[in-house]
Design goal:
By secondary structure, this protein is mainly alpha-helical. It has 9 helices and no strands.
Length: about 190
């Protein structure tokens, strides 16, 4: 993808898009996010989740995840330690373990490798893993399959396109939080694909 495509579809400032460009392209190559519609959907979704490629760690403390066995947070302090990180917020000990196994890194002992506050405070490794973890999440939730159901020539906010985009959003955040913003990023980015 080009810098313009990444910048526009994520609605990010140029410096953020520039820092993430190579890592996003590497992620898309690794996880077969390799068609215009897949890339556009991926960028619109991660653009929303990261505030335009700016945040790589959720703003909340993570205390709300304390004791959440469904996330694998079974040890005191897990909620804060394994709060949401990455361009798509990977959350919980179990997910940190799974993504670490998939990417060949230890995120259990080094959870901040997935992201640190925001782009200004991230090392190159944090930026890379922030993007790669989003690709891993995308792949494990089979979001390419949902993206493939979207017709680029038809409006995303109507009919079957909208239903597929809503299903994708629900798999990312459990609901339709930020749906209008996600659709807007898609629509802005669609001019560049």
């Amino acid at each position: 993808m080009t810098l313009g495509q990444v910048k526009e579809a994520t609605c990010s400032p140029t410096p953020c898009a520039e820092k993430f460009l190579q890592y996003i392209n590497d992620t898309c190559d690794k996880f077969q996010i390799n068609t215009a519609v897949r890339q556009l959907c991926f960028l619109a979704q991660v653009g929303h989740e990261s505030g335009g490629l700016f945040f790589t760690e959720e703003l909340a403390s993570g205390e709300a995840y304390e004791g959440r066995a469904d996330l694998g947070n079974t040890i005191a302090g897990d909620g804060v330690k394994y709060k949401g990180r990455g361009l798509i917020q990977i959350t919980g000990r179990a997910n940190y373990k799974a993504v670490g196994d998939a990417l060949g890194s230890d995120f259990i002992d080094n959870p901040t490798l997935l992201g640190g506050k925001n782009i200004k405070s991230c090392s190159p490794d944090q930026l890379r893993f922030s993007a790669m973890s989003a690709g891993w999440f995308w792949n494990t939730r089979k979001l390419n399959d949902l993206a493939d159901k979207i017709d680029l020539k038809s409006p995303v906010e109507e009919g079957a396109n909208l239903q597929s985009f809503i299903s994708m959003t629900k798999k990312i955040n459990g609901g339709t939080n930020g749906l209008p913003d996600r659709i807007n990023r898609y629509k802005i980015g669609s001019k560049y694909f």
